[in-house]
């Protein structure tokens, strides 16, 4: 079939060949088979329904949640000579579009999920059988996905009403759970999954503890002269970081977040896209729909929301295929905050959110290949080492900290689960300051049971135990035991951590802010 499609690919889009697994997806849907295509951003998902829209009789219906992206695509499709239209709240010509659909004058019709699930739309499709349903951003149908949209759940009756019309679900971000759920929710058979390669071999991944973000990032940026993005967890953070990095590096740095007025945002975006050295400190609001192939680095000043978001955000680096860097700084407090937020979630979401956090914890904690872990998360079977991540380039030594972890957890328990890491460390190392004596903590069996030599492992260990939820924080910031503490205390869960780097000369200021 590819033989007949190639000339169409060339004449419609000007491309000489299919990329990755595009051909497979197109062939499947042309043969009328339900399909879930999981392909990273930039892999060319739109082509997998745009080409069939030209090749097949009848109109392809594209369900898509973002009006702005829809209109971009619409322009692109029309530029390729495809007869495309959209039915969204931003379109004034609904009557004309419906008429064109009924007369069979459309190849491609974009529609938002809330409209697609309405009575009127169903009636429209009854007037003429569609050729294909393309469901973009299909992870929105799953509660396991990072962007669940209830409207997507209501699509199923529409799809089932046209059960002989093939379905093509598309997403860039679906882990194993989400993928399985999409298949079930949209009625696509198990063997309908087409998973394209997620590897971005030119991106070098580095993940390290945050011990002073501004300083660490300034050094990183100085070593990376090209344009880049620094993701910060908060709006204020983007502004402070911009000022600090500009001062420290002398590079043009602009802050970007949803609180800025639209003109300012457009300006920052425009400056960045045209710059060869510019840096944007941004919240995750920045990046979607930005077409800049030569981004040389993406840094995270704090823990990203999920492995999916991490992959998507770092994926904005090095689209041109040249070497690019991804650096993530994380702290125990990132996990503490994220785990705290779990308690505010509706019961039904807690399990999936916790799984997501555990996956992030595994990524930051691993002493093995980061890329292999990422790719396995997306269901691939990568080689054990990639040679282009921090752990492959400079393998950390592992230390067995199981016994130390037991001592630490006991100290947290015996001091009443309300003191911060500093106090617990002081108890363990036998520093009898006033606060300790006052509380009688110098009389505890855990007082002074950690030798000076081992003390350097305490901070990284707290981070590690926090990430794996053996430790949690109280609402006042004290340490308490988490659900994973028991197996550690009982010796059922070994605790291996990466040997911390030799301690730099101690300066004032708190670590791990
Ligand atoms: P996605 O939706 O997967 O993020 P797009 O559909 O926006 O990706 O495509 C990304 C880019 O790749 C677009 O510029 C598109 O024109 C281009 N592209 C898609 N398929 C091919 C192909 N077979 N050959 C060359 N370029 C392609
Ligand atoms: Zn690696």
TrEMBL record:
Cofactors (names): Mg(2+); Zn(2+)
Domain Helicase C-terminal residue range list: 213-361
Reactions that this protein is recorded to catalyse: Couples ATP hydrolysis with the unwinding of duplex DNA by translocating in the 3'-5' direction
Database matches in CDD domains: DEXHc_RecQ (cd17920)
PANTHER family for this protein: ATP-DEPENDENT DNA HELICASE Q1, DNA HELICASE RECQ FAMILY MEMBER
Family as reported in the entry's similarity comment: Belongs to the helicase family. RecQ subfamily.
Name assigned to this protein: DNA helicase RecQ
The organism of origin for this protein: Sphingopyxis granuli
């Amino acid at each position: 079939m590819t033989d007949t499609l190639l000339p169409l690919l060339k004449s419609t889009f000007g491309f000489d060949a299919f990329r990755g697994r595009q051909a497979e997806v197109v062939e499947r849907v042309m043969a009328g088979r339900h399909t879930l295509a999981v392909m990273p951003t930039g892999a060319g998902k739109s082509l997998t329904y745009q080409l069939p829209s030209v090749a097949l009789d009848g109109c392809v219906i594209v369900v898509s949640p973002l009006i702005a992206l829809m209109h971009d695509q619409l322009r692109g499709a029309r530029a390729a000579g495809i007869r495309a239209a959209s039915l969204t709240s931003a379109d004034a010509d609904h009557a004309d579009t419906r008429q064109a659909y009924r007369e069979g004058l459309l190849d491609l019709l974009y529609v938002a999920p809330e409209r697609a699930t309405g009575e009127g739309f169903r009636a429209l499709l009854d007037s003429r059988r569609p050729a294909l349903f393309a469901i973009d951003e299909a992870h929105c149908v799953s509660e396991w996905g990072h962007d669940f949209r209830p409207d997507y759940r209501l699509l199923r009756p529409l799809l089932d009403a046209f059960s002989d019309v093939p379905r093509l679900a598309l997403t860039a971000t679906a882990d194993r759970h989400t993928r399985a759920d999409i298949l079930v929710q949209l009625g696509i058979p198990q063997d309908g999954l087409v998973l394209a390669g997620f590897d971005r071999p030119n991106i070098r991944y580095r993940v390290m503890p945050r011990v002073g973000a501004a300083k660490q990032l300034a050094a990183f940026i100085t070593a990376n002269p090209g344009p880049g993005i620094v993701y910060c967890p908060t709006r204020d953070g983007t502004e402070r970081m911009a000022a600090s990095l500009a001062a420290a590096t002398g590079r043009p740095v602009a802050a970007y977040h949803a609180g800025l007025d639209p003109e300012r945002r457009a300006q920052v975006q425009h400056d960045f896209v045209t710059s060869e050295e510019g840096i944007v400190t941004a919240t995750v609001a920045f990046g979607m729909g930005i077409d800049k192939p030569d981004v040389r680095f993406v840094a995270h000043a704090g823990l990203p929301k999920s492995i999916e978001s991490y992959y998507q955000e770092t994926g904005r680096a090095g689209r041109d295929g040249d070497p690019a860097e991804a650096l993530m700084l994380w702290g125990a407090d990132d996990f503490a905050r994220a785990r705290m937020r779990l308690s505010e979630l509706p019961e039904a979401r807690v399990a999936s959110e916790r799984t997501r956090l555990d996956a992030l914890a595994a990524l930051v904690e691993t002493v093995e290949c980061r890329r292999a872990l990422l790719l396995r998360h997306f269901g691939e079977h990568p080689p054990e080492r990639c040679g282009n991540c921090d752990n492959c380039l400079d393998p950390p030594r592992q230390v067995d900290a199981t016994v130390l972890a037991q001592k630490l957890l006991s100290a947290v328990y015996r001091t009443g689960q309300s003191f911060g890491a500093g106090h617990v460390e002081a108890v363990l190392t036998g520093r009898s300051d006033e606060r300790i004596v006052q509380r009688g903590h110098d009389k505890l069996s855990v007082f002074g049971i950690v030798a000076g030599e081992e003390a350097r492992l305490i901070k990284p260990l707290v981070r590690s135990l926090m990430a794996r939820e053996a430790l949690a924080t109280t609402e006042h910031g004290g340490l308490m035991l988490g659900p994973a503490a028991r197996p550690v205390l009982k010796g059922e869960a070994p605790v291996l951590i990466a040997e911390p780097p030799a301690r730099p000369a101690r300066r004032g200021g708190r670590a791990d802010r």
